[in-house]
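Entry 14. Two folds queued back to back today. First construct below, sequence then structure tokens.
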Amino acid sequence: MLMASTIRRVVLIICLFVPAALTAQFKNKEITWTKEGSGFYQVTENGILLVTPAAAQPVSILAYASEYTPKGKTPLEVADFEVSDDKNLLLIFTNTARVWRYNTRGDYWLVNKTNKTLTQIGKDKPSQSLMYAKLSPDGKKVAYVSDRNIYVEEIGTGKTTALTTDGNRQLINGTFDWVYEEEFGCRDGFRWSTDSKHIAYWQVDARQTRDYLMINTTDSIYSFTIPVEYPKVGEPPSSVRIGIVSAEGGNTKWLDIPGDSRQNYLPRMEWHTSSTVMVQQLNRKQNETRIYNGNILTGSALEIYRENDKAWIDIKSRWNDDNPRGWDWIDNSNAFLWVSEKDGWRHIYRLSADGKKETLLTKGAFDIESISAVDNKNNYVYFIASPENPIQRYLYRTKMDGKGKLELVSPETLKGTHGYEISPEAKLALHTFTNRVTPIVYEWIQLPDHKPLKDEESIAKNMQPEKNRNIEFFQVTTEDGITMDGWITKPTDFDPAKKYPVLLYVYGEPASATVEDTYYAGRNRLFEGNMADQGYVYVSFNNRGTPTLKGAAWRKAIYRNIGRINIRDQAMGMKKLLKERSYLDASRVASWGWSGGGSSTLNLLFQYPDIFQTGIAVAAVANQLTYDNIYQERYMGLPQENKEDFLNGSPITYAKNLKGNLLYIHGTGDDNVHYQNAEMLLNELIRYNKQFQFMAYPNRSHSIAEGEGTSEHLKKLFTEYLLKHCPPGGR
């Protein structure tokens, strides 16, 4: 999906039970809970701790740093780790390297506490080449991917067996190509069976997928190309299949899943029993999904469930924090949880393992955002929702038999956005809270009563709301009858008798919403200094199509309408605001956005030049036909059938209408929104003799964050352009 420039979920995992010098902080990373859910593990300078908050002695040492220090070297830098069920084996991920967005390559070392050894896994493989290593359930083997092949190493003997040997850059075993990772959240591409005898894995055949060639002109005297297997919209998907192979090696048994593999996706697969795997198939248009139960002995795949939608169907990575792993099995694997919008709201259903019995669990005219935890013992599912206010988030629970009521778990008095990292079986949780006036605060709680483990460290006693925070949340109804949520900040020395410039922050596409009740609302990370002190009004809206909790009709109104309906909503929202608020200067109206927000900014400047005089667009899709097939076809259909929708929603179509000031920014090494978008747009602007300012950042990716001084340079560029072309201050 296109990257939003703000991220709602910021979780600081800070242990409250050890001295400050030993605390560790992680951003956007799940807690490593113990299997039973009574505690969690924490990396410190001195070792890895086992923290059991409710115990009399809450802290113990799982492994001292000396235990994972190679001979003659310093301790391994622990990026991640896995602990065996008996806690005698510790698999450490270290020396990591970036693959597209995340550091998923590196080295793995195994600490064996029983015989007090430290062994490098896959030591015959190139440094930083191992991916997704994990222990077998019986603790006797480690499986991993290296150079697109899957290997199994016996812990006792060190014997290594190659389970696949045909992997290469475009025939990928055990992991995924660029587009599956970006749009489905699929990265780890193999699974151990529960009895440790087999491995199920994805194989991506991208040999018929054309490469997009990025060019590097700065890292050597002669330029060179970097090929990325990247299916553009309109191009068929890479062929993907699911195979089962013995952990001892041998031939792979491929599941016989119906349908053309180049016209369907397989975004989800997990073991059901030791002899069956559950697989989700999504058709190319992503408006029909089927679930198959695959037999690993015969290779047969039995369809057990099917669902259709007039627009698109979201998969687990869209409602589970970009993590498609895990099938939510309940009732001893006789049933599972399923999320659907079939009745117009995003709800949780209980489906029997054979797909024949379906029960709605979250009844009512409201959306769930995501499933947070499953309590099998007490028959509850925990989830995030906000029935009364779509820009806030709360934890709820309900019974998994369909007979329970909706129960609010979050404190009713804390209005805003709650986040939770919940332990297995919903015993403990790290609770975070923020709202428009409250910086993020956290506490450890026990469930289901939501009681803080330490009263003196509770959110209620430690939150520090900011008095007189300069932000207003509001709703605006446009001349089209569309009511949008928004926020607005005013200048520090605001005088209602004066008129001030206004800057719109926009995203506008289905990947993200900009208006949420958090402390980060109304802040601009690209502006040097304080916009309010400089005399700017700052505003944002949630248009139709943004993933806010207002029902499927709201979210899916944008189907085949990206670049039109969202742009009209934003423009009409600004038009109404200019009319209603006399202190806004209609001659000084600007917009900015990144990625999908950059596209929106271009469209606003080109389609509504009489409203917007200035725009700053970063890493924008100027031509929808250049973006990847999974994202663009999900929301726009197939260009072979409705190409006019793609053209009518692309900024490049309207570039000739530019009247105002445009600053366009793009990284030449952007593997997500390719740099060709910039040059296509530049050509069109030049064709019509439109003057503009352009900044290319050499070899920077979609985040434009690499390289010394880059972020500072970008901020200065952004700030000076805004100050010059949309002058600040009241008049």
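Second construct, same run, same settings:
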Amino acid sequence: MPLPSAPDGLTPAQLKELVAQLLAEVAALKQTVAAQREEIARLKGLKGPPSIKPSGMEQATASSPAKPGAAKPSRDKVRPRVSIEERVIPVTAPAGSRFKGYESFLVQDLVLSVRAVRYRRERWVTPDGQTILAALPAGVDGHFGPDLRRLVLMLYHQGQTTLPRLTALLRSVGVAISERQVQRLLTERQDGFLTENRDVLRAGLQSASWISADDTGARHKAVNGFCTQIGNDRFTWFGTRASKSRLNFLDLLRAGHLDYVLNEAAFAYMRGRGLSGPVIARLAAAGPTHFADPAAWQAHLDRLGIATRTAAGLAVIQDPVTIATEGAQWGSLHAHGFLRDAVVLSDDAGQFAIGQHALCWVHAERLVHKLDTFTDQQRAAQRQTRKLIWNFYADLKHYRINPTPSRRRALRARFDRIFRRRTGFVTLDRLLARLHANKAELLRVLERPEVPLHNNGSENDIRCQVTRRKISAGTRSDLGRDCRDAFLGLAKTCAKHAIAFWDYLGSRLGVAGAALIPPLPELVRCRGQPT
């Protein structure tokens, strides 16, 4: 019965009924409070953050595995990547035996030996006093040969070993080398690799229909920073900087270009970010549209009187200098042909929300999966919501394979029904409303079916940087940082094109007999061409 406004007028029977109702509600509340206290006590007893398993939505919505009992695919035969040496092993057979051919037994082995060559270079003095010195053989660059340089780069970057262990390994097999010399092999005279790594990024940004991005912590010069991954199914690139702001991300996307450009793309970006109309008009009417470097751009802002505004000593949220600079960087991207019609896929980190932005469904569902629940009703609402999201995600996968206008309309309407539901679980309802606000970015795949539904590729790529961070204290020089990022990115790019990193290094270092590997930027562009 509803609670009366004036209980004085109730009869004894009505009062008894009211008391019984209140006692039942108090008992239910006590039970809820006890369950919450027990859960809080359990969470407080944990060491570190609670261990939350992955939701498993991507695996659960994958194609159904083969039926139980079905024949498993046979394992491929061992096919070495080197020529096979044939050896016949004879056996003494009794008289009258018949020869039945051979039974093969393949053995793979590794020959690791050290060779030291002293080149005695002829030296002549001409009659006019000039000295002629015989040139070193091709591929000899310094006191360590190309094979040794290839092994050092392979073990350190792809093998993820440490500098002391790599030095100890080389010494144990007979190489006379110091830790400092190994360090030089990793960083010095690597301009060719650094240039190719930069060109890989430029080729990827010019030809990609989509890219994904992610970042992780990185330490440089004893200061915590951030390593950003940019790539897709054709290339991977890493850049480590002190900041993870949108300005930094746009700067990385310029792929080494330092210019700022004011064009229609730049002004559209500024309007989308809410820069005031008078400031945009002042920039549009000022004259020059191209600025060679940050100094020239800052001087232009100073001439126009555009400066960071402050209120009571605090910086305002919409800083005109920051937004104008971001817009000029975005204009530079378009001027160089980068990301003209490409989609940027991310995990909802704010710095990646530029251009045509798409959100990762795995990260969106993870918010529902990690939601704290305390009652049976809340847990039931969470399970039902996750089931609806999983089914919707599976249908989005099917849509990517066979997109049609009718399915597109049906999926949009179904998205609204799922994320506008009211479950009675207040926290879950607020989360659903937040996800519904991201409808355009979560459903970007409906217009662009080639875009993945998750950014697992970026997370898989960036794990090598996480491993390096765990086994190394960080980099100490800008050159060391750039070399680490470049070689890890080149190794990932090679893997995406089914190229052995060992062969790639041999081709670039001029190792005798090494396979010829074409420039990686050309491969990135070729795979980006429509078939």
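Quick look at the second one. The longest helix spans residues 12-44. Residues 361-446 form one domain.
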